[in-house]
């Protein structure tokens, strides 16, 4: 509320003069006025008041009533008679804004005519104002609608004539409300404890209005609180702000008008106003006022007696605070704000109740942004601004919390804070070691808001040593993650477009102090650190060699974090930071791009694959070819030959040596342009596209300015031509942002053609993961990544985080670019437009302002989400209990088909949900989720072809609302949130989690004879050549003691073709698959495949945990980890077992992965399964040739060797039942127990004349049920369960001796017939 210089013109009695002197800073009280004097005075005061409000008080006692035309009465020049004064003339003299008070009879007529005259003034102004030639008027219009009017009674009414009341009752209510309220209270005879003879003592109330410790001051304080509360609860927010928060005098008169309305209505007068106020005489809070007056009057005789009893303060505010606290304890956030909110603000003026009031206010603000807006609407801001001058330590916690909430909702308060030097208060809190980390975080948040795009705030903060304070607190021992995050954001905002602050940071080695935060376990802290470093390297007004060196050091440090960080938000921020390096050193990156294009045009390997010795000779090689008449490209003073007909003028660009900083950064950008996350790749694509666009712009410019060109016959050289043109001399600078192309000039995303060209420019495959998981298994994703923006940025989530909190919440922000210019600091005259922008800071502010209310349901036992989670946990616990009984179950057959469906493409991976009745089926390019109990298709998800083919599936946090992890053969990993009702699964995150070896060129296999129809069918259903399982020479073996008659040797799968037992394969094998395993107990993801390491990602920190060196040249073909099963005896095993394409098996202890526990070399073909049963001390391994080995893990000795019908496509071991299954490409599924005994085989679908199953491509067991899912290359998916057939249940459970012999004989005959069928020549 402002204290304005309000001028008062009062025509009233001397008894009321001093009251307006107390209310107004400039008052003029005139008793006998003529029309000329009124005109002169009004014009003079309006001229002096300028745009401030002028108050005109008319006391019309003893003069005629206003006329029907709205005329009031004044004296003539001789003071002998009254003459009318038109309101039209008075409006002209008073101007606007003004406030009119009419204490006379028939006052409503004046207000009605005032509106009519105001409209007439506006019409005349529009008619008389001549617009200038430009069409704009030079004189601003006068708006009389902003004038306020208060009248004592309505039209046709007369003022009360009661001898017990003052003649100017309306004026008395406006100027002396406390005294008038007491007199009226006594006159009504409603006193309960007040003596009857107290009326004569009312004018002697002790104290001052401004002293709240006295009776009069406290009553005025309570009256202000009550009238403010009545108005706030009854009026619209706009009207409340206009009347009760505009200025002190207007607010005081409006509050007193509410009392006048109550009193005068009791005497049949209806006060009127403009704008019109509703009658609030019957509001319930007036009863609290009457009680306060009753208690005060009861003490008045004793206080005025000779003993002078001290005044006992009213319990009013204490009771109102208690009522507010009851609302907070029992109320609902969906209800309107409590009635006591304005009273709490009045309590802040008292030191007695201030601490309690601030604490209650903090609880109210914690309800959300709507609570903050309600408090701001009431008018808390001036109160809190004054409290910044208080030095009491007990107020600091509440003060920083309230100011943080205000800053989150209304960032424009930064100007008021700087003017009041409020930043010093928060700096003192930030460096106070006695303040806890939470409130220091709030102080850092407020400081970050003060310096956000506000040059005066940045300058004041820098002078206040904010830089050194923030750097000191970065590594405080008790610092919380949120404190580190907002300290980094505060530094970033301080450095943004402010060169003085950046150079101050250079002197303090700020970038080196920020580097440790790049390894912080919290991704939001790492993203904030990258944001700070990004503003640290922004192009400055003046460049120096020292600045260039620091920028390059920071860029290299950020690029080195790309393959190690799993968070998309961090990768997006790294790209936003690296763009400033690209903008600063554009010529160097253009030289790298040109050098890369020249290398490709000569048919040489791209950058990143060039031998260092050859690359060192590249300069000499480029200048080869003498006598080139056409133009050329000069890199480092050496002319590069290009086709003469290309008309490329010679240009000099910086020399780029092999392994230079710019080459490494360019490789990082090109690698991120192929990032599996679509938003991250879009950001990188825009930066790469910007560099290419600069080539086009420069080329077009040079082509237009070239004076002449030599035209020669085209060269017979068949190499690709470089379609770029370059500057002619070294001193020429490249175009700045004003000459860049817009969307039509270059694409915002890399097209498929550009992606293919860039795909060979680097072999760096960066890893980008997502989100940590904290707690036993639930997943929470709560992050932002940038969004595509043009102009105002849209706030969509982009980062995300898997946290182990129960439940899951996704904030996924799409990450495209903002091509619109950003607001720059005034001092940075040469600042360039950013190529891309992210929304991480805005998301962090939104999360901070939200107050974490999203997770309140975890503590609310009545909420629906809480009950759903409780039911889910109870169901999962019961399923795990029932599953433990499978350890003792005796399963004899597994052949009953419970589900069968056909897919669009042949399935490659299949996966059961451990708790829900869901099954996931993936092909090369998509995946779908079915309910295998009802056969309903729940959802279908698409897969980006550029990410490769799907090779692995895994449920993450399956006991909660599970996420689905999908891995591809290129090492890309994506996490989806499955959806129901036919909706497409939502992409949560994606990253390149494994750096796979480059695939070798594929050669088709030589011609081979066909040995069986099964082989022909199997090869018929195979996909592209890179997906076929190559079959080498076949040899017959002696009959295995376990019943398998033949064995087919298959070429080993691995990067080395000679590593297997088959030496005459004659072609390179296809690229192996990427394997994936999730361990909920350790909250880590493990990936293996055609890579020299097994990579472990920590989902808690969203960072790469460590790499386990396999020590094997062959690719990993099977992966098992302890703790991945929902039911395991003895707790999770830390063992990790990997099978390889050369037939070896290796195991490590994940706690000490430096050396393997053991390594086995018993197989001769690729290992398909390595499964350990810790409860049985058993490990089962199986390979492509069909050899199954069962080991005793205590002795590392082989217990059983079984030869299954090969070649095998998949092998799996049930985690609870004593079963393992083998799926063959010969259209056969074999079920064995852990002793190697064949239980049954499945070759045909169920039903009469059931068709033969297709060649098996994948199979898996259900982790908690005795069920087997099988996918075949004929695009069918089936689920087999252990239910027995009709008529066989009694014989299998209780066989008689004769029946037992017959059953055994039948099994032997079936085996013989099966073997005979297999060996029958076709």
UniProtKB/TrEMBL annotation:
SUPFAM superfamilies: ARM repeat (SSF48371), WD40 repeat-like (SSF50978)
One Gene Ontology molecular-function label: protein-macromolecule adaptor activity
Comp. bias intervals (Low complexity): 1051-1066
Keyword Mitochondrion: no
Residue span of region Disordered: 700-719, 729-770, 1026-1066
GO CC term, one of those recorded: TORC1 complex
Domain Raptor N-terminal CASPase-like, residue spans: 4-115
Keywords: Repeat, WD repeat
Polar residues: bias regions: 746-770
Protein name: Regulatory-associated protein of mTOR
Source species of the chain: Eumeta variegata
